[in-house]
Here is the input.
Amino acid sequence: MKTAEMQIILDKIKEYDKIFIFRHFRPDGDAVGSSKGLYTILKATYPEKKIYLQNADFSNYLAFLGGEDELLADEEYSDALGIVVDTATKDRISNKKYSLCRELVKIDHHIPIESYGDYEWIEELRSSCCEMIAAFYDTFRDELTITPEAARYIYAGMVTDSGRFRFRDVSPETLRLAGVILGVGIDTENLYANLYLKHFDEYKFEGYARRKMKITEGGVAYLYVTHAMKKKFGLSDEEASASVSLMDSIKGSLIWLAFIDNKDGTIRVRLRSRFVTVSELANKYGGGGHACAAGATVHSKREMKALIADADKLIREYKESHTDWL
Ligand code: AMP
Here is the structure.
């Protein structure tokens, strides 16, 4: 637990009358949950302060968690403390106006490849950034106020980023903090229904995708979701991207990749793995992320094939030197 870093951040929060909260673009449950969770705790604790969520894009599948504040004029930023959550690098911050803030705090659980905050609290072994917000609340619970609304945001991020408490970074501390947050009072049945129910068309697409996915000799499962496929099944980019999880339970396939056509002609890559680390592979293709969940962008089918070949090599090397995989 990095209590010294947390204390510095709390002191900064107390010092400022105006606080802007940022997260990464194309937000997932953890980005939305940690930004809105922190925002709601700070609003409840400091009703006299001006606190705003300042982000430039949204994810439709998380719309059930509610909206955010309108973007304020540039001059509003100069006397604000900016807090960026769940974002490893500057270029992934959703709202580029973050740099106008007087001082910047970074709270993150990704592998630290770039330092950009005046004050930073990084714990790459935390299963989610929401877990860090839960720890922040728990450490200063005598001073901070949590509400059921804040708890719902935080829990949503803890559940989604940890693969429902299955991934390797889930620790006794994760579950203890989940207990603290659950204890505030959350309608989990409603939360899970919002997170996990799918439209019928998505189910039909899943059947199609299972037929289309391929696997290399080494065991890299992959799927390329083209514009045509998206059109055929009426899929949003988010729905198309979710297809990566269709490949997460294939025996012997320690790495699985979804390639999704972007509107700008590039191809989004979602890399997932068990046992093997894929973040360095993502780095090689200009991306990043966690050991077992990372992302990148490729620009051609040739580059896609090269990435698949690299992943295949990674698996082979892993399988040759380990026996405990399946
Ligand atoms: P995704 O597949 O988009 O859910 O990404 C998995 C993880 O990798 C998330 O923690 C992302 O923040 C991170 N990530 C995804 N794409 C990139 C990228 N291009 N550069 C750096 N990190 C990324």
Remarks:
- The CA atoms of residues 47 and 314 lie 52 Å apart.
- Residues 24, 28, 88, 92, 110, 270, 287-290, 293-297 surround adenosine monophosphate (CB under 6 Å).
